[in-house]
Amino acid sequence: QSALTQPASVSGSLGQSITISCTGTSSDIGTYKYVSWYQQHPGKAPKIMIFDVSYRPPGISDRFSGSKSGNTASLTISGLQAEDEADYYCSSYKSGITWVFGGGTTLTVL
Amino acid sequence: EVQLVESGGGLVQPGGSLRLSCAASGFTFRTYDMHWVRQAPGKGLEWVACVRTGGDPHYSDSVKGRFTISRDNGKSSLYLQMNSLRAGDTAVYYCARAGSSGWYSLDHWGQGTLVTVSS
Fold first, then answer.
1. Which residues of chain A make contact with B41, given a CB cutoff of 8 A?
2. Which of A81, B38, B49, B107 pairs as cysteine with B91 (C-beta 3.0–4.6 A)?
3. How far is CA B62 from the centre of its chain?
C-alpha cells in the first residue's frame, strides 16, 4: 500500500496559522470520510488530534481543524504555540479494510 | 484511564520469530477493534494489522502471510505473532485502540516495544 503524500516539513511563527496537506487516491481519501491526524513528539507515542476528517476528540484545542477536498485532506493549526512543534501524520481508511499513513510532516515553530 | 502496555520486543535474527503482547486496561476490551502500527527508526508510521471485535484479522501487504494478529478478550490482551522476520521489520511496534467515536481512527496508543532484526 502506497503511503499518503505529505510535505516533509512546514514552519510558522508563533501565533500564525499553518496548513499541512495530505494527498491520497480515490481508494482512500477520495472515497472515505475517515481521515485522521496524529501528533507525535520525539520519543513519544502518537496522539490523535482529528478523526473522521474534521472532528476533534475531547481535550483537543479548537486551534486544530481538519478538512477534505477530493483526494486531499488538510490539517490547519491556528495561533501556533511552541508546544505544537512536532511531527504530524495523516491516516486514511482504504478499500480492502486496511489503513494507510502519510510519510509525516515536521512542524517547526519559529 | 485507558492503558495499553506492549511487551515482547527484542533482538532477533533474520528469519526468526517473535510474539508481541499488549495488555489493555481501563475499558471494555472486547468491544473495540485493535491495531498494531510500527515505526522504523527515524521513519514514519506504518499500519500493520487490525483485529475486529469478532476476531477477523486484516493485514498490510508487507506483513501478510508472515504476521498473525490475535486477541484474548478474557485476558484483555492483543498479540502479534511475527514469523520470517526481515531487517525491514525493525521498528517500534505500537498497540492502538480504535476510536470510541471514530471507529476508523486510533484514539489510544501504547508506548511501543522495539523489535530489532539483525544478525
1. none
2. B38
3. 14
Give pLDDT tens digits for A31-77. 999 999 999 999 999 999 999 999 999 999 999 999 999 999 999 99
Between CA A97 and CA B51 the distance in angstroms is 11
Give SS3 for B83: coil
Q: What is the CA radius of gyration of chain B?
A: 13
Question: Is residue B28 left, alpha or beta, with left meaning phi > 0 and alpha meaning psi from -120 to 50?
Answer: beta
Q: What is the pLDDT of residues B6-23, one digit of tens each?
A: 999 999 999 999 999 999
Contacts of A46 (CB under 8 A, 6+ apart): A38, A39, A40, A89, B37, B45, B94, B106, B109
B104: chain A residues, CB-CB within 8 Å: 32, 34, 36, 51-52, 93, 99
pLDDT at A1: 58
C-alpha distance from B12 to closest chain A C-alpha (Å): 22
> How many angstroms from the chain centroid is the CA of residue A88?
6
| C-alpha to C-alpha distance for B93 and B9, rounded to whole angstroms | 8
Q: Which of A22, A17, A35, A26 is nearest to A81 (CA)?
A: A17
Contact: A101, B35; criterion CB under 8 Å? no
Residue type, A57: P
Of the partner residues B45, B47, B94, the one whose CB lies closest to the CB of residue A98: B47
